[in-house]
Amino acid sequence: MQTRTPPALQILPRRPDLALPDPLPRHWHSNDPFKTHFFNAMSVLFPDGERYFIDSVRLFRDQISDTDLQQQIRGFIGQEGHHSREHLEYNQRLRELGYDIDALESTVKKRIRFVQKNFSAERQLAGTVAMEHFTAIMADLLLREPQWIDGAVRPMQSLWRWHALEETEHKAVAFDVYMQVCGDRRILRRAMRQATFFFLKDVTRGMWHMLRKDGKLTDLPMMWRGMRWLWGRNGFFRKLVGVYRDYYRRDFHPWQHDNRDLLDQYAPAFASALVR
Asked: What is the pTM of this model?
């Protein structure tokens, strides 16, 4: 299996003209509140989360002498910056639908401020490595099995596939930086346990808020179908268990999950959006 970042890999930011619906349909994914708010709740986390990822990598940028990795860092920062801006617009659409996005974001902002004040630079970067693995394996599933986003309105399909494509491209950047400047896998494993807890907590909190606002928490058949879609035998999260656990291996590298075939498949659709 591939055990290091492919040497010819290019990480190039894109700025697609997504033209998000305005107003955003309240249940834009298959007219299903549960599916819609699962993705919405993740979007709430991205603007502040991705700025944190950029900041944590920048803490070590000057210590990297590898020219290929330096170029990949530039691509990583550019891609994450565009993601943050696009999700700010997305989240504003959610505000306009009446959801308390400020309250949901406040929890994330406070946690990030605490981490940046109290954690070492190495632990901050380890947190980014952990969350980049999360986003990478979810991105792989969205691209490999299109049914998870099929049924969404077209601009939202494009947004999530563009995001997934770029998360796949840069999935090893933070990891490679960390291994050059620190390399302690015990810190990485601890960071993943913490990241898993807070990611699931924050996504669940966001979903519950939006479902409650819609008056859907008491729609038991809809909630049952949604929980099966997410956690059932062939559910979204259940499909991620194996690749999630690979992170804890002693020899783990993100490109052991070599999915360059998906880059070849999806990149042409966004070729016109490349920022040179």
From this structure: 0.96
